[in-house]
What does this fold into?
Amino acid sequence: MGHLVSKNSKRVKKRRRKTRKNCILHGPCMLCFIVHNTSTLDDDQLESASKLAERYATLTNPEECAKFILSPKELGILEERNKNLLSGVPAKLIGNQLFQTVSSEYSDMVCKRKCTKLQADTPCKQLRCAGVPAEATENGLSSESASANPVHVCLLPSPASCSTVHPIAPVKERDSAQQLCSGAGEPLACENMTVEPLNINHLPSSILLKIFSNLSLDERGLCASLVCKYWRDLCLDFQLWKQLDLSGRAQVKDDVLIRIASWIQNLTEINISDCRNVTDKGVCFLISKSPGLLKYTACRCKQLNNSTLDSIAQNCHLLQKLHVGNQDKLTDEGLKQIGEMCPKLKDIHFGQCYQLSDEGMVAIAKGCPNLQRIYMQENKMVTDKSVKAFAEHCPELQYVGFMGCSVTSEGVIHLTRLRQLSSLDLRHITELNNETVMEVVKKCKNLSSLNLCLNWCINDRCVEFIAKEGRSLKELYLVSCRITDYDNQADGLESQQRRF
It folds into this structure.
């Protein structure tokens, strides 16, 4: 544009060029040079363009510029649609100098986009504040225009401050912030509205204890307790030490049990299975400090003897579960003490305790009428007398197992009295006939699991009867039994809705 209005404009080569049809103007003017970058004009066009340029230079506001650029027809269309004149003018046709004054028409418009800088050339996005901020002076807003139309706005955070994620403020804080932003008070920076990030330690201690109760002993002792002092205190809470599981820890000795007993008392569950370095001294001391013990498990602890059973009988009268399988030194004397002093016993496991006999089993059966589960394995001194005693004195039995014991069909037939019997394990019973099994299946209507493995006397006739009468049966184990494919076909036809 400079060389066109200069005194040496005649030096420009004269060359005709067709006016572009897409020009919004209907005649040549200085704006065409800005938009289309034309380099040459003839004398007539140059003279008219110079006059239009002088008129264009006298324009003082955007409305006059719009009326100057738009045709009468376009102005009429905008007026009919009640639209602003500036909406029909390309932004690049209006210079920045025309937007240095703030019009009262746009004083009510506020930028709603958070964390972004205001655009320099947009008159509709003015800051609402009592004074003129630094950003307004940088964008060309004069103090006079700002004071003429004073407005208020809440200061927005910078993009850098918004890069960090803050939790949502409470409802009351948001309401107060909206009141301040509406002009009722002084400008409030959004950084002051941030709330401290949530932390797991803000949860109640009862909930944290519930979470820690799902962790194992190693996870609590070697991981959670090392996070902070607060977690260490929670991991030492007595509620998390009601169940003591030390199974499979060969390094545990009596001194560890004594320290635990002196620190935590009234345990409800103790499991020291496969702890072969503990002795009766440490176990008895731990049991003496746990009068509320409900479950005691010490399988494969061959070094323990009747002293532990005597300590349980003297201190733990509420005992419900006793698993002491594979302890060679236990005798009937210890079982007699348990039968006399622990009447609430419900679950016992004396498998592979080879010195136990019918004398101790009868004492348990008579003293613990609430028994629901009994399991014996390879107890050669346990005979039909024990089976008869359990069937007579323990009517609530649901699980019975006599694997490899010296039990015959004469003793098994007594199990037909147990109306609640649901699982029966008769593996490796040498003198078990088909008639006894058929009678048990017929009388025990709730029987759902039957294990007859390693019984050579079980044949096709017995299995066919089981398929017809065992309506509640879901599991049937027949490994190493004398059966053929014919019986398997009959079994499948009779039990299409059951899984054996």
Remarks:
- The first strand starts at residue 243 and ends at 245.
